[in-house]
Specification:
Rossmann fold; 485 residues; 6-stranded parallel sheet; Dihydrodipicolinate Reductase, domain 2; alpha/beta; 17 strands; 9-stranded mixed sheet; binds nicotinamide-adenine-dinucleotide; 2 domains
Length: 485
């Protein structure tokens, strides 16, 4: 799909995200023929760098993170020709007149996009300076990274600051989870098939599990993470977005506000989570074959930290469709495997014509977001052989890379998709301000409860599936986790 001519200004153009994700993503889209001739990328940051030093930095970044195409020296050179570096201070006046001049030099009608790839404390100052220097036009768009606030109050304040200078239609709040091919596939699976939607409610669904397990720890973001924890860093945004897509009503059409209206209704219908339906965990040190992995507390350098690196909870959506169906959500660091999966457990058939001795097997739909993206539906069949009617499960498995060949095995990175959507002006996969606030309104009382009670997370071994209490949370409901164990 062609895109309009654009100027994309990346504030934080020397940062980790710009180097690892944003610029490699733009390079791959460039190689895919999606950057119109004359489009410009203007990287802005506080450091004083020459054009050649900056281009050398980005050459290295693209060689490291740009994929196979990075070996194409001609393409890389052509891409670097679209790139300009300029020094700008988000909190002062340095560099703003130069940036204005640079932008004014763009020939022809072009969309201006300002990507705030800087710490969240700079989102407000950047919006204000863009306005002050006449760069915030009615047609400009801004892209805002996470975290969007750390509670309802700060998210509201940030929304209000951005709203002073930009309308909601100009603000693109990124949650890179929404850019993942398989996450968008959730909508295609639900609303593109007749098979699932009639069963997608509490009458047929026993419960749903959403797991986002990571093997990595928090190295490199210790200070930020220790102030946030898994609830703020993952649950309030990524898992909440997955929950919305799984639980929302069918929007009338696949358009930004229709989709986001339905997601918002899910968040607003969430009950407050009871304390005994939440398990917080913190990883302990681990002795590997030849080295020792630090504990969470050692990593953050605070041996009394009570920040959680793991959280599991049971949520309820009080609406007509889902009353009575629990949603179990869990996410954590330093777990045994990297796995993001949504498991939809259907109820048992109401009556077994084969008798109880044949065994009962409920259907399970697993949607794997990573790794090994695909879906598996467990169906019940007769156990082969002459031994009478006994039932067993078999998986109907579709791994996208096998079913779709190269196109399925090599989906575009989330940032490629999302940046192109910003350039096209499509907000469907971006969070609206009221969604973010509603998610914080659900999160805040949970965190306030921990603080009031002086809650201390339960220790769990690095490389395990999480704290024992998370298994207990399920066992109390006569269920068990599936996805990483
Ligand atoms: P970083 O610390 O690596 O880079 C920060 C950038 O901001 C640098 O380019 C720096 O020069 C620039 N900067 C700092 N102060 C400035 C000022 N006063 N004026 C102008 N520029 C200034 O940070 P990062 O990891 O790239 O993260 C950027 C944003 O993206 C943060 O909000 C972060 O939470 C978010 N994010 C990062 C990742 C990631 O993987 N790195 C993932 C998700 C979200």
């Amino acid at each position: 799909i062609p895109v309009d001519l654009f100027d994309l200004v990346i504030f934080g153009g020397t940062g980790d995200l710009a180097q690892r994700k944003i610029l490699p993503a733009l390079f791959r889209r460039f190689c895919g023929g999606q950057m119109p001739k004359g489009a410009r990328i203007i990287a802005a940051a506080r450091t004083n760098l020459s054009q050649s030093d900056y281009k050398a930095m980005i050459t290295n970044a693209i060689q490291a993170y740009g994929g196979n195409q990075a070996n194409d020296a001609v393409a890389l050179e052509a891409f670097l020709d679209c790139l300009t570096y300029t020094r700008v201070d988000a909190t002062g006046d340095i560099g703003w007149p130069e940036l204005s001049t640079l932008m004014a030099q763009g020939q022809g009608a072009r969309v201006s996009i300002f990507y705030f790839s800087v710490g969240p404390n700079l989102f407000g100052p950047l919006a204000e300076r863009l306005h002050k220097h006449g760069l915030a036009q009615d047609s400009s768009r801004i892209v805002v990274e996470k975290p969007f606030g750390r509670d309802l109050e700060s998210a509201r304040a940030l929304n209000a600051t951005l709203a002073t200078h930009f309308s909601e239609g100009q603000i693109y709040r990124i949650d890179h989870y929404l850019g993942k091919e398989t996450v968008q596939n959730l909508m295609a699976i639900r609303f593109g098939n007749m098979l699932f939607e009639p069963l997608w409610n509490s009458q047929y669904v026993d419960h749903i599990q959403i797991t986002v397990a990571e093997t990595v720890g928090i190295a490199g973001r210790e200070a930020y993470y220790d102030r946030s924890g898994a609830m703020r860093d993952m649950m309030q945004n990524h898992l909440m977005q997955l929950l919305c897509l799984i639980a929302m009503e069918p929007p009338a059409k696949f358009d930004p506000d229709a989709v986001r209206d339905e997601k918002l209704k899910v968040i607003r219908a969430l009950d407050t989570v009871e304390p005994h339906h939440i398990v917080r965990g913190q990883y302990q040190a681990q002795q590997g074959a030849d080295d020792r992995h630090d504990s969470y507390r050692e990593t953050v350098g605070n041996l009394r930290s009570t920040t959680e690196s793991y959280i599991a909870l049971r949520a309820h959506i009080s609406n007509w469709r889902w009353a009575g169906t629990p949603f179990y959500l869990r996410t954590g660091k330093k777990l045994v495997a990297r796995s993001s999966v949504i498991n939809v457990f259907f109820k048992d058939a109401p009556h077994s014509i084969f008798g109880e001795e044949a065994g009962r097997h409920a259907n399970l739909l697993s949607i794997r977001l990573q790794p090994n993206e695909g879906i598996t539906l467990k169906v019940t069949i007769k156990e082969p052989g002459p031994g009478g009617m006994r039932l067993m499960d078999v998986p109907l498995d579709m791994t996208f890379s096998e079913a779709l060949g190269a196109a399925g095995g090599n989906p575009p990175d989330a940032y490629e998709r999302l940046i192109m959507d910003v350039i096209r002006g499509n907000q469907t996969l971006f969070m609206r301000g009221d969604e973010v606030e509603a998610a914080w309104a659900w999160t805040d009382p949970i965190i306030a409860g921990w603080q009031a009670r002086g809650d201390v997370p339960k220790p769990y071994d690095s490389g395990s599936t999480g704290p024992d209490d998370a298994d207990l949370l399920m066992r109390r409901d006569l269920r068990e986790w599936q996805g990483i164990n």
